[in-house]
Write a structure and sequence with these properties.
Length: 447
Amino acid sequence: MDYDQTLASRVQSGQALIGVIGLGYVGLPLAHALHEGGHRILGFDTDARKVESLNLGKSYIKHLGDSVAQGLSESGRFEATVEMGRLHEPDVLIVCVPTPLGEHQEPDLSYVVKSARDIGRVARPGQLAILESTTYPGTTRDEFAPALVAAAAEAGTSLKIGEDFFIAYSPEREDPGRKSHTTRSTPKLVGGLEPHSARIAAAVYRRGLDHVIEVSSAEVAESAKLMENIFRAVNIAMVNEMKVLLSAMNIDIWEVIGAASTKPFGYMPFQPGPGLGGHCIPIDPFYLTWKAKEYGKATRFIELAGEINTSMPRYVVEQTAAALNRAHKPVAGSRILILGLAYKADIDDPRESPSFELIRLLRDMGAHVDYSDPHIPATWPARKHDLAMKSVPLAPESVASYDAVIIATAHKAFDYTMIAECAQLVVDTRNAMARHAADMQDRLVKA
């Protein structure tokens, strides 16, 4: 039986069932885009609350809105489930699970390997599995595929990649909250373990996404994703280092960035901040530095960028402590409010947010710390943090009651005029108070 031709025909005709494993910030928008392209979707997640919410037509990701979940649940072409035993049903399985770092900054592929084994236990000939999780080159071929094939063998099914089972890699390129590009309009890279896998995977994405680019291998696609995010991490590190230096020289980094941006070629502006957040930039570079050691290669440039970016929360805390000291207040016992728990403005995504590190460092120094974020009313248990905190209302009396307010995320919902009028001290890491700076004098610190 020509499994590749049969599967390709099902994809082209719209008969194929697409399974999406992991219905988070990557998997849910992808499921929606493919569903809009006409695919039938079976979504898998280990969180029963997410599954129930989607089947009821309610979204748990604020920036996507309920319309996305309603469109899925009301179409008759979508179902969400927690039953991994149903992984044999889809013709195509797309894996969108986390790839965090371990305690010593080493890659944690446990979610990827578990998903591979879950698929393998019930796999059948004629399926395609696509890994989307960001990782180092070689993961799809050397980790994901062997785990899947081994689990299938344990279950009594012999699979041959490229003959009766197909595996590809396609890096996710989600940027939560971005208005200029959507999952549909963002170009999609696809690389297979062999040509049949790449061709079929590309056909899957072409029903739902505008631009699909096939590359020669899964390793090229894996490397391209790391290249994109390391580029951003290195440039952010550069501008963060410039911020620290220029601040010591009493030069405004944001004015310098604006001035440099007037050059129409050879320059791209990046913004400094209190540290890196999100699902990619704080993590992905370390995947490559770890893999480089296997080949006896040093990645000094990437590692230095990581050191600079991870040091920024401590720099902000040091600037806060110095400002409090000038006001004859120790950090210990001071009441400090963090504005913004999300890792970037106007979204409800707190993954890897530097605000968590700011809270930890300040608490370790004896401060009483609260946060305010209109998009995140309360924290929840995560891999690294379980703060059990609730967002405090942002009102004149509450702002005035804190010894310092640290702007970590520049949400548009914050009333910066009120903050300028009421705060005893503002430590601004995002240049959010620029138009109020002249009125605040020694109550404003740019950090």
